Amino acid sequence: MNGRRIGVAGAGIVGTLLAWRLRLADRNVRVELVDTVSSERGATGASGGLVRGYDPEPRQLYLAASSLAELRASRLLRAWSCYQETGSVYLQADSGHPAALAELERLLPGSVQTRGPGEAPYLATRHAVVERHAGFISPRRLRDEVLADFVRMGGDLVHGQVGGIRAEPDGTVSWQVDGQQRRYDTGVLATGPWTPALLPGDGYRTKLIQYGVYEASGTVPAPFVDEVTGLYGRPGPGNGVLLGVPSDTYDIDPAKLRPDPALVRRTTELATRVFPGLGIAGLRHIVVAADCYTAPQGLRLRPAAEAVPHLFTFTGGSGGAAKTAIAAARQSADSLLHHLAVPA
């Protein structure tokens, strides 16, 4: 594969991890990462950074638990991501599938316990999956450290806006970066909420992400997700707590984001009901961002438009991509290198 080139557009956490994985796996492949000027307005800078192993969807569970296992095993990744192990609680209406819990135990031995109604933390009516080996990271810090290492390893970094994607007659794929053509054997769009504008009509949609950081006078809970209400949260800086609920606002312009007051009210009301002893004393600030969604949900490598062979997307998460990004990037890098090695 000597002389082959892979281009990755989008230097958020997922694009940067993918480019880094590619460079680690094969130094003979030239990898170019395009840091778009819009990267800071994507989901990476706004992510709450919750990392846990459990998820009711089997593929998501495998990626999340594998990511967390690698993170905990790597002194470098723990330091780069500012990982804080606090444990986590996943609240749900039923007890969960035994096969999922067995897989979680296999990937993260000794981490998981289950609690039934009356035993579950926070809400007595819920079942709970309680993980000892879980917590939160700083996705922005991890991205910055991985990006610096990618450049140290000889990866190519360029800056600018991506557009003008097309298939070339020789079978390569190209795009424009601030008016200059860049050509690759394989291209990957890890462009988050800007993907729908680059690939209109391909089933990608933007979605609002919003959470608040609140003052709390009571005991701040460990990172948690309540599957029934959608409420999620984790400890925040100082005596604060990060709280949010999923939005149902799609097809927004990621360059024109505004807080949704209805989401603020719903988050506050749910938190007061779920955590009556939390003592929410006020809202410090609201964080608003956008991400890209498609079906089936989950962060994965996907072939893009048929009109542009050798073009892929690496996006379409269901939210919370930080918890799956490490393993998903490794899987996707392996797939891309296999794709390069197979003659067209």
From TrEMBL:
InterPro entries: FAD-dep_OxRdtase, FAD/NAD-bd_sf
Coiled coil region boundaries: none
Keyword Oxidoreductase assigned: yes
Residue ranges annotated for the FAD dependent oxidoreductase domain, each copy included: 6-334
Keyword field: Oxidoreductase
Source domain of life: Bacteria
Cellular component GO terms, alphabetical: cytoplasm
Pfam families per the UniProt record, alphabetical: DAO
GO molecular function: oxidoreductase activity
Protein name, per record: FAD-binding oxidoreductase
